Task: structure prediction
Amino acid sequence: MIGVAKLGALWRLGIAEATAYRASLFVWVLATTFPLISLVLWRALAEDGPIGGYDQGDFDSYFVIAFLVRQLSASWVVWDLDRQIRTGELNTLLLRPVSPIAHHAVLNLSALPLRTLLAAPIGLAVLAATGGITLSPDPLAWAALCLALVLAWALNFLTQLVIACLAFWLTRTSALYDLWLGAYLVLAGYAVPTELFPAGLSAFARALPFHAALGFPVELAIGRLSGAEILSGLGLQVLWVSVLGGGAWVLWRRGLRAYGAYGA
Result:
């Protein structure tokens, strides 16, 4: 169990690193503006009337929130841990009194406030250009959204952790994450709201972890979900966090044994 003092030290370290590399972090923020590009496209398509229940204002709301949710749920452990396993840098982390997983989790989380701050001007510029967005008026939905964002971050972190742990056996696993990211762009609601998919594909996509990590929090924030849908969405997030968390635990434990067997 990580203590408060260790947690505080890691948090300060994460903030210091994020501040030192704020230019790189801003470039990373710019690389996640794809929802805003989609906003321009779908706004133009909806000029003559709503598409599948989304008018221009709905598309504005959806994609601006999608951009912000992406910032608040971001993780990059797959690249860091993949490199550390391949180069032997993991040895140093294993000698520390804090689990390497906890180390990466805290460092990733501590950078999110600065990342969101860097993204804010972009979001505000889009809001000024579109005339504003519509959000859910239900305070219970906002309470659920707080939990949904925590679970969305956990989904992204654990997904990357599972893939990164494969570096114990494979040469380079970050390339595998590129495949996952490609599926995420299509199935998470990142480019197109999953509600606009054909019925069968929509139901399939909404049951996957991609949608749970992005589309569900976005729809929750803009008030497109009923109470039953909110509960089922949260339940699905918890299910995927449990599955991915269990998979990460197994791979990490077995991977450390393999790592030690090679004399690392």
